[in-house]
Amino acid sequence: MTGESKIVNKDQKSPFMMSGCKVADGYGTMLVTAVGINTEWGLLMASISEDSGEETPLQVRLNGVATFIGIIGLSVAVAVLVVLLARYFTGHTYNPDGSPQYVKGKMGVGETIRGVVKIFTVAVTIVVVAVPEGLPLAVTLTLAFSMRKMMRDKALVRRLSACETMGSATTICSDKTGTLTLNQMTVVEAYFGGEKMDPPDNTQKLSAAVSTMIIEGIAQNTSGSIFEPEGGQAPEVTGSPTEKAILSWGLQLGMKFSETRSKSSILQVFPFNSEKKRGGVAVQVGDSEVHVYWKGAAELILESCTSWIDKDGSKQSMTPEKVGEFKKFIEDMAVASLRCVAFAYRPCEMSDVPKEDQRADWVLPEDNLIMLGIVGIKDPCRPGVQDSIRLCAAAGIKVRMVTGDNLQTARAIALECGILTDPNVSEPTIIEGKTFRELSDLEREEVADKISVMGRSSPNDKLLLVKALRNRGHVVAVTGDGTNDAPALHEADIGLSMGIQGTEVAKESSDIIILDDNFATLVRVVRWGRSVYANIQKFIQFQLTVNVAALIINVVSAVSSGDVPLNAVQLLWVNLIMDTLGALALATEPPNNHLMQRPPVGRREPLITNIMWRNLLIMAFYQVAILLTLTFKGLTLLRLEHDNPAHAEILKNTFIFNTFVLCQVFSEFNARKPDELNIFKGIAGN
Residue 476: beta bridge partners? Predict the structure, then answer.
């Protein structure tokens, strides 16, 4: 329930278990005292399901753009309506044959109404042109398309709008275990026979006798086990993370688990004890030989040793220099955030062992031990995490690590991942959860910006950090896998849960599920998010160019001649194609690395950038110039002066419409790369 995989004892003193817990060991009878909303799990779910109804950064911007354009369109339409009505009723609107359309006192009511309706249609056409009603559709198409594609990149999007929000993320608060690291403890350093083994499974320098003893000590003195399936598949190792690490290392040394265990019989076991920080076993080898093996916290085992084994298998006494050497090795491991485990043994005679019926109280001898060696275990960084974090930094996204580990371990992993670059940083760059918790709200906001690593943090500290960062105007993405991460995932702009390690509750409250638990996938999600945002910008530039051009042409024609070259049906036809296929063509533009080299769009950036305005206005100006030339000089250019005036007018307007449509086709290509000269680059990939 706490999200930590630490096993907790339940007894008369603390008998309560929470729903969602797993029983790891033991048996008993259970009485259910609460279900549903009255359980801790239920309360968590209830706090998640309250929907805040907040708009995503993109929705806010789109609403702004649409409202702005709508107001302009309406005001222009009203102005045109007033001008046209004034011209009509003062007799300045003419028929194709040159006679005025309205003559005062001579017109019937029906004819007047028909004239007014025609003018009204022109005004409506202008509104149709101006309002980009296809925007929401285009955005949904883009998001849905990207969502399908992100699935292939191992990201399952649960909320459509999260796609595009991810593109504006300015900071990512990530868990350490399982996201930045592999959550697989492994032996990375070993010190046996008085010298360092490099790599840790290289036993060539050790004599066969020493290797045999190490392997026997690993196989017999363990609470884990190894299942070796038939058919040559990889063996399955079970046990606590540390036991699994040591057993896997044993396999690399060439240990045959079942075979080694069958060669000797166990006489007595001293289970690993967290107070004594050691565990031991006595095994009988042959008829009369007994070996007592110990393993545990390196510095404590070292204190009990009076001698050590060199690589040839001969016993050397533990001199003060040698003790110093071992201690130095243990300290070096601790600095590198490794967990140190030492192995020691002591030979006994069968005569020293009590008879079988008195053996239950026999305490294994734990003095005068012989040091075999020390291993350093760590949870290694995921391969590729450094590159991903470098990519994030280049893209202007700050990655912060929030972990329950102590500050030393957190610092070492952060240095290894590249979250920290300087090993000597101090508060508030690296801070304890407790310290952060005790600050006031204002101080928290001040400090939040500077934090890179938070160690010993509780889930609530994570939530406080997210709130503080959001108040500072950041768009925050949070990764989490435990049930307790749910509130932080829910509070963040984008909650990312882990598909493999993640609990059901974490997935429920997240927006995107990272299916392979990998930090590199998270960076791919950012790339997709930015791609979505960029594609929507391209589409807006494309659509507004059309709208501006059509608007200007119709307004100018309407005011000068009382008629419009592009009628409502034609413009709706253009809109229909543009909002579906035109939008899809730009929406399916695949993401490129160029996207990750620019800073994120925060909450405050305008949707239409200066570059877009530049492109849009130049292209609209170009289209307007051509189409107005055709409107006013079309009859001469097309040599239609001597045709029947009504027929010539229809021909000219058809020509204008075709030109207008072709202009949009080329405008679509131009919109592909708003900020690059070569608009055909990568066109085969679309």
Answer: 171
Q: What is the dihedral of CA 612, 618, 622, 624, to 10 degrees?
A: 80
Is residue 175 part of the annotated active site? The answer reads yes
Task: Examine the domain organization and report whether 406 and 493 are in the same domain.
Answer: yes
Which residue has 């045109």 as its token pair?
A: 80
State pLDDT tens for residues 72-109.
888 988 988 898 888 888 877 777 666 777 777 777 88
Within the chain, what is the greatest distance between any pair of CA atoms?
136
Q: Looking at residue 365, what DSSP letter applies? A: P
| Structure tokens given for 455 | 């160690």
Cα 655 versus chain centre, distance: 51
Q: Which residues contact 620 (CB under 8 A, 6 or more apart)?
A: 545, 548, 549, 552
Q: Which residue, of 323, 358, 378, is where some domain finishes? A: 378
Please check whether residue 649 is in contact with residue 96, taking contact to mean a CB–CB distance below 8 angstroms: yes
Strand 476-480 versus strand 171-175 pairing type? parallel
Model confidence pLDDT, tens digit, residues 213-235: 899 999 999 888 888 888 878 88
643 & 557 share domain:
yes
Paired sense of beta strands 305-309 and 315-317, if any: antiparallel
CA atoms within 13 A on the CB side of 385: 25
Q: Which amino acid is at 169?
A: A
Report the domain count for the chain.
Answer: 4
Q: What stretch of H or E contains 143?
A: helix 135-152
- Residue pair 528/153 in contact by the 8 Å Cβ criterion: yes
Residue 684 lies in a domain: no
Q: How many residues does the chain have?
A: 686
Give me the DSSP letters along 507-554: HHT-SEEETT--HHHHHHHHHHHHHHHHHHHHHHHHHHHHHHHHHHHH
Spell out the residues 6+ positions from residue 199 whose beta carbon is closer than 8 angstroms to its own.
none
Domain boundaries, position 592: 57-147+526-672
Query: Does pTM surpass 0.85?
Result: no
Domain CATH for 308: 3.40.1110.10
Pick the closest to residue 570 from 122, 133, 77 (CA basis): 122
Measured CA to CA, the distance from residue 562 to residue 203 in angstroms comes to 95
Residues 125 and 140 in one domain: yes
The active-site residue out of 175, 379, 461, 493 is 175
Residue recorded with tokens 């007033």: 82
Tens of pLDDT, residues 322-334: 999 988 888 888 7
Same domain membership, residue 340 and residue 213: yes
Q: How far is CA 155 from the centre of its chain?
A: 8
